[in-house]
Amino acid sequence: MQSIFAASAERTSLQNLVRGVVLALLGSVLLAISAKVQVIWPVPMTMQTLVVLLIGAHGGSRLAGATVLAYLVEGASGLPVFSTGAGLAFMAGPTGGYLAGFLVSAVFAGYTFERGYARTLLGALAVFIVADSLILGLGFSWLSVLFGTEKALAIGVMPFLLPEALKIALAVASVPLARSFLARKVSAD
Fold first, then answer.
1. I want to staple 110 with a disulfide (CB 3.0 to 4.6 A). Which of 17, 64, 121, 137 is the partner?
2. What's the mean pLDDT in 130-151?
């Protein structure tokens, strides 16, 4: 599936570069906002994973990677873009694995959508499940290093399974909307 933010052959390479930088920065702002939206279920949960999945699926692998990397650099430099902290020390703490998972997940989702693995809703569901599992898997792995496997599973995975399933459902629901938008955009051009 073509990205809804795909570069155009009608624009110069400089225009495409500027457009890509602006979109990546806007996406990083969207990620920062999603980090501040918290729902208590039974632990605090943000909307970041949903936004990561959407950026990957609808932005493509390069834009998704640049967007999440910009977000991570902003946080590493001390900007308050994460849910509760900032800086390199914060990134090395318990949320570090999840933050690394954001990058891997976004690029994976973008790559698989670009290659057509999500042509059907079932394919999109499979891609989103794997992409979300990458976030949870890297988060769990890092938590296991810090706290041990049993505690990492209890605090870093199990409480999030149902909320993540709901976010995956929302991401899948976005696919027909994006396709409809693309169809209108292509017919208008």
1. 64
2. 98
